[in-house]
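Help needed: design a sequence for this.
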């Protein structure tokens, strides 16, 4: 190559270098101060847990979570930092566990801490364990591999398939068999959760009093999904208790609530219950939380009402069956009240 050719080549390299530096746009995942952090729960910490961060199906980063020396089911934390606000996905993989995908994770400029989420399935991302043949389901084939005489009852060094030591304690025994056989794992597949899917979390869509009396109140509650609604009745000036406190029948101060209870509900169907034996002419605050069978909870909600006064319980009418004799000591009469009430016997003659 002559001098002219060398110069031309050098110029081309310089030109291409400049062009590439102009065309190279920083990855959107690396331009902000936002973050996403979370917690993964899985078995056998000596096996690597991989957490992938994706955006628009493009992998942006992967973290291999640090392992500890212990065996069993252990939590491991992760954090992806310097992210731009946006929508991301997480894919978590680990040998002998099924795949865990969390889609539609919305991150704003303040970042997102999944461990603060009210949903148990997101607060702690739990990998399902026992998929020895990596086919995406934990089933009889996996169970039979652990149960096989070539593996069961042996130390991992002597077993045909050492991966059957699911908890990582060095032996393949009942603990490992029970991990596969447990209802949390057996028959389950890869997990996919939509983080931002509307209606994912149970909610109380309606809580109101439908009939307020002197000493009782009729209440209607509707939840978005099947579950149990726990409630406490408090003085109207009371602070709102936490979900845990309502479930335990407590006030925000931890003392026993004036009244408490729970009721089974079915998604979208209004359920009515009566709280009786309460004080007349008193203002109350009714607080409630709905809990799904998987432990997920709604926000706490509340409403106020004031019981009526017995003094306003007017006698609105009184009548006697035809032919009865009001001068008799055994006269019959029918009374009506504006609220529920009892007519006291009066032996005076009525004229
Ligand atoms: Ca399997
Ligand atoms: Ca074991």
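Sure. Designed sequence:
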């Amino acid at each position: 190559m002559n001098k002219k050719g060398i110069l031309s080549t050098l110029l081309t390299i310089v030109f291409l270098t400049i062009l590439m530096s102009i065309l190279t746009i920083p990855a959107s995942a690396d331009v902000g101060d936002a973050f996403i952090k979370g917690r993964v729960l899985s078995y056998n910490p000596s096996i690597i847990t991989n957490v992938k961060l994706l955006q628009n199906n493009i992998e942006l980063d992967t973290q291999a979570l640090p392992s500890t020396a212990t065996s069993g089911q252990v939590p491991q934390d992760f954090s992806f930092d310097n992210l731009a606000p946006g929508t991301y996905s997480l894919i978590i993989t680990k040998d002998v566990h099924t795949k865990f995908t969390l889609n539609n994770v919305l991150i704003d400029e303040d970042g997102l801490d999944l461990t603060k989420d009210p949903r148990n399935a997101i607060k702690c991302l739990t990998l399902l364990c026992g998929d020895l043949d990596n086919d995406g389901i934990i089933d009889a084939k996996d169970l039979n591999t652990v149960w096989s005489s070539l593996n069961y009852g042996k130390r991992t060094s002597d077993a045909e398939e050492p991966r059957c030591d699911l908890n990582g304690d060095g032996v393949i025994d009942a603990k490992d068999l029970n991990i596969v056989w447990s209802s949390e794992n057996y028959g389950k597949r890869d997990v996919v959760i939509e983080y931002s899917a509307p209606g994912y979390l149970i909610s109380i869509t309606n809580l109101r009093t439908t009939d307020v009396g002197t000493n009782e109140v009729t209440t209607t509650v509707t939840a978005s999904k099947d579950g149990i609604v726990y409630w406490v009745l408090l003085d109207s000036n009371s602070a709102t208790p936490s979900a845990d406190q309502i479930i335990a029948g407590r006030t925000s101060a931890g003392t026993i609530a004036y009244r408490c209870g729970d009721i089974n509900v079915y998604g979208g169907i209004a359920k009515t219950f009566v709280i009786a034996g309460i004080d007349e002419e008193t203002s109350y605050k009714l607080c409630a939380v709905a809990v799904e069978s998987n432990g997920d909870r709604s926000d706490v909600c509340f409403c106020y009402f004031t019981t009526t006064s017995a003094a306003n319980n007017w006698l609105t009418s009184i009548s006697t069956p035809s032919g009865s004799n009001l001068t008799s000591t055994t006269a019959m009469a029918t009374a009506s009240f504006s609220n529920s009430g009892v007519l006291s016997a009066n032996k005076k003659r009525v004229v």
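The helical segments are 3-23, 120-123, 140-147, 174-181, 243-247.
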